[in-house]
Amino acid sequence: MAEKITSREADYSQWYIDIITQAQLADYAPVKGCMVIRPRGYAIWEMMQRTLDDLFKREGVENCYFPTLIPYSFLQKESDHVEGFSPEVLTVTHSGGKELEEPLALRPTSETIIWHTFKKWVQSHRDLPLLINQWANVFRAEMRPRLFLRTVEFLWQEGHTAHAHATEAHNFAKRMIEVYREFVEETLAIPVIVGVKSESEKFPGAVHTFSIEAMMQDKKALQAGTSHDLGEKFGHAFEVQFQNHLGELSPVYASSWGVSTRLMGALIMTHSDDKGLVLPPKLAPTQVVIVPIFKASNKETVLHAAQLIASELKQQGLRVILDDKEGYTPGWKFAQWELVGVPVRIELGERDINSGTLIVSRRDSGIKDTIQRESVGTIVRDLLVDIQSNLFLLAKRRMDENTQEILDHDALIHYFEQDGGFALANWCGDALCEQQVKQQLKVTIRNLPFHLNEEVQGISGTCVVCGEQAKHRAIWAKSY
Amino acid sequence: MAEKITSREADYSQWYIDIITQAQLADYAPVKGCMVIRPRGYAIWEMMQRTLDDLFKREGVENCYFPTLIPYSFLQKESDHVEGFSPEVLTVTHSGGKELEEPLALRPTSETIIWHTFKKWVQSHRDLPLLINQWANVFRAEMRPRLFLRTVEFLWQEGHTAHAHATEAHNFAKRMIEVYREFVEETLAIPVIVGVKSESEKFPGAVHTFSIEAMMQDKKALQAGTSHDLGEKFGHAFEVQFQNHLGELSPVYASSWGVSTRLMGALIMTHSDDKGLVLPPKLAPTQVVIVPIFKASNKETVLHAAQLIASELKQQGLRVILDDKEGYTPGWKFAQWELVGVPVRIELGERDINSGTLIVSRRDSGIKDTIQRESVGTIVRDLLVDIQSNLFLLAKRRMDENTQEILDHDALIHYFEQDGGFALANWCGDALCEQQVKQQLKVTIRNLPFHLNEEVQGISGTCVVCGEQAKHRAIWAKSY
């Protein structure tokens, strides 16, 4: 871990990779585009899983597991879907040395196999709604892989629901994007913009795709989670119907929604700095590290005092490490724990013990304080709460400061040529205007924010591209 | 769920499948040999995962994630290993419609890719021991698939460790088989025999394979978990070495160990009966069901009383469902909850409320008792503890009663022709004797139990097959 991290200013892309490899979050795998998630990275992912899984259960969702192997023909049953995923599918052709009769796709997502199965499970209105989720690995051919952000195999959860009414499916999809917002803002401390995708950016086969969009430190957008109102397309393609209260056969409506290990990338690129990883306390596998400063003559005294603090904090339910390794200087240890993102560091030596004090530093601001030994429990707990909200506020301020209302095409070009962040601008709804901006500036509509569209009375003004009457307020940005 | 379950006596195999499908634990997938794990089954697997994961963490093991896709050439680096797994490997040949340069194996197990990666992670004695685990899906071509027991894709955990000394790896492998014994006996309530596999039955590439073997209700053995001392084979094949305290390059020693969704099969075949699933309370997603018995006139009174009981039990940390569905008779509800294996059922009607009593039934024995309303908390908690230990004792008694000491070849033949269970018999150590019994009787050595071999002073007597001097005491049985 002795190499230096490239600064963000010098090379943001390289900085991102340096953080991941030097903080030992992930490693390149022998197959191009695949990654190994190392224990330090997986521990964070595991914390995300637990929190999110509890939220799903709160919403009445149950976990299950569907096979990875999908008959290739299933993908072809829904035409938008096959068009969207075919170029990305990995295919199994042999088993035990023999060629298979039909090639099998490694799931790029599981709508098709799940709706094939729902046909067996859904017969009567009593079987609805059906709310399920799976934690799984998925596979997509990826031309420009990037650790956590775009990998050939990645880990995610995919929720799939079946409903008796179109509005119920639509509302459930909206409900789940709100659950993602709650999770990403409150646990990852990443502010997001919630909205609906434009037609050209939605999920293959969806009626509507809702997304949460975050801003990274380089001002690019990152799509952190999506939820899809699938209407009756999958129910229709897989011939799923149910008998309603009147005994009539009715169509079944679907939603699906997912977040992935991509969130690890969002987490890193939102909070970390040139010294290494910065973690919100709720997700930090270690929240507090205690570094005792001792020499041979006072080792026992100092370690004893440090152990007492460690057990006091652990009893409060905090995740604490006492770093009593020998043969390393305190300065070396400080740098290591900063690199891996432990939110709070406590230092103590003999002098501190004699004066009944401790030194406490926060990873987010770097601020050091001398505090009274007896109040360590309260102070550290308060600090962790404060760091969690400070990280959110810093990210929120950055997003707000780098979001600008843009009124016409020239201003839009100028904004992005000057390295702009999010442009808030009107759009007529025509895909050609979107396409033009994408080609010109590599900028896309991230979403049409709910709070600027659905919750307001009509849109006034003109499209930022063509100048025609606007129909939507949109967030435009470069993106990951 | 209205179909009848085939009785065990009529057809044990069909009974097993009926339990799984009617209790909605799993379903057949469109690809032959694959399965869908339904919410009722997955909830049990999730409970197993949480318990086992805590045990791993107690042993200092950290979770991580390695890719599913392994270059085919990796499997060929360790010769025993490739021989063992080649006939079972599924191969990806295409990605995004294009043929790959090198075919990729879907991991049948991950030793090869993990030791390829360990080469980067292990340099100095400071990097050892390395103790990691992953929860993952694996793939093996399977000619005779069977839900949970043998499926083309299954879920498991695989632990992999690297050590500086051969004895340390050996001892860690032994430690983990003991962790599995603890887990399977204490949580699944399944008694097991812990021992070492014979040469011909061990894992491809292992020096020693340790196993836990359980007896199902049809007296066949089921291997419930294995742990392998891999010696220096994988370290050698992947050129992993470390610098020891003296600065010299030394070989690295390995262990690996795993349990899978096969445990679901063991759980079903150990405890369940002709009425459906029987679950040990520690693994039951619902531990207590309350069935209120009411008519229109007293509905409110009865439901109110039932709700109070439900919240009292939930406050004690129990997993409780109040079944207040309308339009079903109590008898129909009883049968449903028996089918899905809820350990304790509480019934109450207006008469019970008036007399301050309740009816409590246990799923394991079927015994019903009238108890005082005010002691419901204590009684139900005690009952759950009692059911957990009773299920273990029943299974232990069955195993003991169906294990017999066998002294010579004729007796061995007779024992298995008479539908015997486990034969405890001496063995000379020659694979030919093993082979002969396998061909003749479809009986194999399950393992050489530790308590009959390592913990005793020498083996006396003669081999049950050839009559030569015995070297080991072995458990012989038909198996899944």
Q: What's the CATH H-level superfamily name of the largest domain in chain A?
A: Bira Bifunctional Protein, Domain 2
Residue windows where pLDDT falls under 50 for at least 5 positions of chain A: none
Oligomer: homodimer
What distance lies between the first and last C-alpha atoms of chain A, to the nearest angstrom? 28 Å
| Highest-level CATH class of the largest domain in chain A | Alpha Beta
Approximate strand percentage of chain A? 25-35%
Strand order of the largest sheet of chain A: 3-7-8-14-11-10-9-22-23-21-20
Rg for CA atoms of chain A: 25 Å
Question: What's the tally of helices of chain A?
Answer: 14
**Structure classification of chain A:** alpha+beta
The largest interface is:
A-B, 53 and 53 residues
- Compute the number of structural domains of chain A: 3
From the spread of the alpha carbons, the general shape of chain A counts as: globular
Q: List how many beta strands of chain A DSSP finds.
A: 23
Overall CATH architecture of the largest domain in chain A:
2-Layer Sandwich
Q: Give a short account of the largest sheet of chain A.
A: 11 strands, mixed
Helix fraction bin of chain A: 25-40%
> According to CATH, what is the topology of the largest domain in chain A?
BirA Bifunctional Protein, domain 2
Describe the structure.
- Two copies of one chain form a homodimer.
- By secondary structure, the first copy, chain A, is α+β, with helices and mostly antiparallel strands.
- The first copy, chain A, has three domains: 12-271, BirA Bifunctional Protein, domain 2 (2-Layer Sandwich); 286-385, Rossmann fold (3-Layer(aba) Sandwich), CATH 3.40.50.800; 403-477, C-terminal domain of ProRS (Translation Initiation Factor IF3), CATH 3.30.110.
- Chain A is 35% helix and 27% strand.
- Chain A contains 14 helices and 23 strands.
- Chain A has helices at residues 12-22, 39-58, 72-75, 79-85, 111-121, 166-186, 233-237, 262-271, 299-315, 330-339, 350-355, 376-401, 409-417, 431-441, and strands at 26-28, 35-37, 62-63, 69-71, 90-95, 98-106, 130-139, 153-163, 193-196, 208-215, 221-231, 241-243, 249-251, 253-260, 288-292, 320-322, 344-348, 357-362, 368-372, 403-405, 422-427, 444-449, 472-477.
- In chain A, the strands form five sheets. Chain A has an eleven-stranded mixed beta sheet with strand order 3-7-8-14-11-10-9-22-23-21-20, sandwiched between helices. Chain A has a five-stranded mixed beta sheet with strand order 16-15-17-18-19, with helices on both faces. Chain A has a three-stranded antiparallel beta sheet with strand order 4-6-5.
- Chain A is globular, with a radius of gyration of 25 Å.
- Chains A and B meet through strand 2, helix 2, strand 3, strand 4 and strand 5 of A and strand 2, helix 2, strand 3, strand 4 and strand 5 of B.
- Strand 5 of chain A pairs antiparallel with strand 5 of chain B, so a sheet runs across the interface.
- Chains A, B: Belongs to the class-II aminoacyl-tRNA synthetase family. ProS type 3 subfamily.
- Chains A, B: One of its GO terms (biological process) is prolyl-tRNA aminoacylation.
- Chains A, B: It is an enzyme of class 6 (ligase).
